[in-house]
Amino acid sequence: MAAYILGIESSCDDTSAAVIKDQVILSNVIANQKVHKDYGGVVPELASRAHQQNIIPVIEAALSEAGIDKTQLNGIAFTRGPGLLGSLLVGTSFAKTFSMGLGVPLIEVDHLQAHILAHFIKDNTAANHHPEFPFLCLTVSGGHTQITRVDDHFEMKIIGRTIDDAAGEAFDKAAKIMGLPYPGGPVIDKLAKEGDPHRFQFPYPNISNLDYSFSGLKTSFLYFLRDELKKDEQFIENNKKDLSASIQKTIIDILNKKLIKASQETGINDIAIAGGVSANSHFRSEVYRIGEEQGWRVFIPKFEYTTDNAAMIAVTGLFKYKQGQFTDQKVSPYSRSRL
Questions:
Q1: Distance CA 52, CA 90 (A)
Q2: Beta-bridge mates of residue 212
Q3: Are 210 and 248 in the same domain?
Q4: Number of domains forming the structure of the chain
Q5: Quick check: is 337 in a domain?
Q6: Which of 43-52, 248-257, 291-300 has the lowest mean pLDDT?
Q7: Domain containing 100 — which CATH number?
Q8: Contact 139, 167 (CB under 8 A)
Q9: Prior bond to 134 cis, omega within 30?
Q10: What is the pTM for the complete model shown?
Q11: Among candidates 56, 55, 69, which has minimal Cα distance to 26?
């Protein structure tokens, strides 16, 4: 019997709802919050207020687009964490209320786990392109950077993670230093296409294991521009494309070197990429290029499933629904991952 699961995502500044039927996504609606652009980053209080305004219209739109009535839902899946607590509270509270009102199971989902399981989303019943267990997943976003060994849908182990800042944060901070608009990652990606990635050299962190570090790179980039601006006030403006290409190359090289090492140490050649930074065009092309050299099978979700979205929450909720992994009304959100 077909199972319809509603997924709700509200971990940061996007309010999203999706409906899934046996791994096939019927709808995936996302409401973005443009207000944060004025502040150069997400303002938690503004984010939570916007979620309160958006959540009902977004869920109504998702049900309408899916062509089903709310009474046909078999379960409500929601992001419990990690994320901004104020934002998570909105999604959690609505999911609990909706679940109770409909008399259907409530299913909590870890946001990072959902990014990994986004690779199992289907756009149609014939689709079956996904990694085989075990596989490695590099999840890269504004708040997280980690390599996870995935042995089953819910058997995962983090084998490498950032010890300080995330790669996505490094992109955004570099963009902010250059005076580029928020979010800076996509802007750097666009400018880099016309720049020389070998024009400027920045230091790589020296960490022996599979962990990452980006704080030193951010500091080095800041000091480099500070010194150059003393010589030429127009340095950033005159070199914006080359700066973007160079810092982008450095960040992506750091990511890929550890991913190669993880594959060699584990002997796993099914490699998945997840998270918002996986939408970066240079990152995608480099992973596919390296994959050919290393003999990998590379898996990257469609663009709409890379950034924060409810489709990944819905598919994770579906797997949990089939295993009877439900939660109760006492559940509360958490800010740090429990993966």
A1: 6
A2: 162
A3: yes
A4: 2
A5: no
A6: 43-52
A7: 3.30.420.40
A8: no
A9: yes
A10: 0.94
A11: 69
